[in-house]
Design brief:
alpha/beta, Rossmann fold, 2 domains, 7-stranded mixed β-sheet, 5 helices, GTP-binding, magnesium, GTP-bd
Length: 271
Amino acid sequence: MVEVLKLKSHSRFSCFTIKSSKPGLASEGPSSAEALLFIPPGVIPDEVTDDKILPGSNIVLGPYAGDAKIKEVEFVKSSNRPKDCPKDDRPEFAMLGRSNVGKSSLINSLVRKKEVALTSKKPGKTQLINHFLVNKSWYIVDLPGYGFANAPEAARMDWSSFTKGYFLNRGTLVSVLLLVDASVPPQKIDLDCANWLGRNNIPLTFVFTKCDKTKGGKGKRPDDNIRSFLQLVREYHKQQPPWIMSSSVTGFGRNELLLHMSQLRNYWNNE
């Protein structure tokens, strides 16, 4: 049973402070007496129950969820400037994160094809805006990682002007999927990126990666790191963004993330 306590704010989507009868709101997620749920359109807050919350997340499943299966994917193009990106009206999700956060691995896991996105042990291999067309109807966009500059000098770029220009001017952007390594404590560079997106009202979902491990076999658990991160970013967000736990190794969170993306995409297509 979920008790709605207070409406925090709303625009396209709503975010509520809620109290759950379970020890934790989302199974295998950070436990807390109170947490913020992401309420999608078409859901009546008073009717939200625990079974409607996607496991390992704060996301409520709504009526727009559906058609989440990926049947085909193809690489379309790489762009070195936002204005060179595809100019059709298909909705897109932009994958962003610190170098070596597991961005390419997550993309390959979502589409269940190896090497669709380039993976490497060397951080910073993705240097362009890469568009992948899914089911001929929407895009996954692989953006350059931040935090390292291992590319050749000629290929290096000002990440701020390059990627931020994409966020601020891309009318088909449904949501940024900001990947955060849950196996380590919150990193300043991730917090800075999340705060910039919040200040500029860019829609985003936190995708916590590497939830199957803890660095060095010791330290805080992933759910503790996630809880700390969410507390630190609250100041810069009018409402709690949706978040979800994942592991490209075990596949944990894959289907739930695709369902979440489907309800955002279907609502975007119908608004």
